[in-house]
Amino acid sequence: MRRGFWLRKIPWFGALLLISLSAMFVSGISEGSSVALKPGTVYTRDSAGEQVIAYNAGHSYSLDKDGHVIISYSNGKSKVKAPLTLIPGYREDSGMSEHETGFFISIDKTAITYGGSRGTPVQVLISNNQGKTWNTYPVTKELIGTTKNIGFISKNEGWIVLSRFNGMGSENHYIYKTKDGGKSWSEVKGNANTVYARVLTGAGFANDKIGFLGFRYETDFQPAICWTQDGGKSWTKLHIKLPDGFADYSLTPLSPVFDGATGQFPIQLSKDGAGNVVGTVYLTSHNYGKTWKYNKVVFR
User: Fold this and answer.
1) What is the mean pLDDT of the chain?
2) Is 2 a member of any domain?
3) 252/214 Cα distance (integer angstroms)
């Protein structure tokens, strides 16, 4: 039999099917599946309400003198101006101040969520090519989001937590997810605000099922962490016991970050007031956050 004869015996649509299947097996990724994403820089708020970096992947943002958002990649090797202008610092209920805004910055995905007040709905600005091009997508028409947290667990799957401050330490939280890279968002209806509705200081998802919310210290429930194992529909308090020696500190969890099954959870230590942060405890997990172990403490 001559080489290639068997291919000529296959109808043209059969050949196309074989080519498509071959491409799928070579790449190892089928259409619609999640594409791996390296951890990005994650911003959140500390116990004093100041914006801080929970995980530094070598990327960051700043504002120029006119309030334009400048994104820096790979420790400053490249910088781009995003098509967004913010108010420096924090301006309560403006929806457009930098400390109300959520940032996630990685090589493959940059996402900035803003708005949610004074007639501006919550939106997300996304770049998939380090700021060469940008697209803006709506998240919700509701005017919520005193502060915002955002992250992606793959190039397609991401999450946003919008927090609405009610006063006296009370805060409600609204969770949104995307499965198409941020083009569309759906709210996850759950019981998070029934379980613990206090001031949020961190949020993160390990996968589409397991996620965490962290809250500012204020009660005997420290570090105040709630978690979900069903994508955000039901939440329970997660009680983590730290080694002896940390009982005299106030404990504030920031945002956990995951690289596959491996996770890192930073817990801020403070004394004599929320603004006096003296160090950070780091917890680690190797099973998507199902269990956490003490790793180390870094004092300032």
Assistant:
1) 88
2) no
3) 7
